Amino acid sequence: MTAMAHEPMPTHDDILLEGFLALETPTGFRAELIEGDIVVTPPTDGDHEEYLAAMNEQVVSASATAMRWYGGKGLKLPGLEPNPADHVIPDATIAPRALRLFRGASPWMASDGVAMVIEVTSTRPRNDRVAKRHGYARAGIPLYLLVDRDKSTVTLFSEPKDGDYRESHSTPFGKPVPLPAPFSFDLETSDFL
């Protein structure tokens, strides 16, 4: 009698992940896999981009040689069981310049070495407020900055542990947001008004 080796049957999560990775979206749209759900987001509006531009200028000038700002980079984060890994595209990903973190990286890369991610709420603010926050914390990303346009606040989440951030500090638009090391400067939000 001869034993035949068989490929294991794909699970529902394997099929979901394979379908997600093969998904083609309309021009300007982006697809993310967040806690087992495929989320397709339309292009952002001008205000969304203005918030990001204002923060980019400050981060890059305040840390001219220390940090790099990346937009549109796919990150693969630990998923919640039984879901596959989350595949998210933060509005901004900031990492130490010396790591050259994205040089040669695949489209969906691990978040090791990322210092901070930034999200500006858009059509699905709950994803930014809850699901992505938990994903970034599970991945151990030290800082998560959320610009909540509906609430007119900027919230800095820090100290990730057990799937969430233990510390958060919310500031209304127009007030500075103190960013800890490795940034060590106050992020001005007066342009958000």
UniProtKB/TrEMBL annotation:
Q: Name one GO molecular function term.
A: endonuclease activity
State the InterPro entries in the record. Nuclease_put_TT1808, Restrct_endonuc-II-like, Uma2
Pfam families (UniProt xref): Uma2
The protein's matches in CDD domains, at most eight in alphabetical order, are given as: DUF820-like
Domain (Putative restriction endonuclease): give its ranges: 18-187
Q: Which domain of life is it from?
A: Bacteria
Please give the name of this protein: Uma2 family endonuclease
The organism encoding this protein is Streptomyces piniterrae
